[in-house]
Structure formats: structure tokens, C-alpha cells
Amino acid sequence: MEEEKQGQCEREEVQGEEREKGRREESRGGSERQWEEEEEEEEEEEEEEEEEEEEKEEEEERVEEEKGSKEF
Q1: Where is this region: Disordered (predicted)?
Q2: Rounded distance, CA 7 to CA 4, Å?
């Protein structure tokens, strides 16, 4: 009887530790996923900024070409 109680307590303890370990891993995984998502967002923003800069440069070139053609 005493051995059964002790065995049950040990199983419950192991199960509790496994649940806690699972929670920690989920939390780590969750923050890792969050970190990856944030990194992807930053990359997308950088790409958008680069595209905007290219568009501005192209527009400036067009404006200069128009000015040049009007002078002649």
C-alpha cells in the first residue's frame, strides 16, 4: 500500500516536470516564432523602402530629362 502511494507520487511528479518542460519549450518556441515574424516584417519594410527610393530616383531622372529636352 505504501509502495503504491510512493509510486503514484513519483509518477505525478514526473508528469508535472514533463508538463513544465513542455510549457517552457512552447514559450521558447513561441518567442522564437515571434522573433522570426518580426525579422520578416523588418525585411519587408526594408524592401519597401528600397523600392520607394528607386522610384524617387527614377522620377528625378525623368524630371531632369524633361528639363533637358525643354532647354533644346
Answers
A1: 1-72
A2: 5
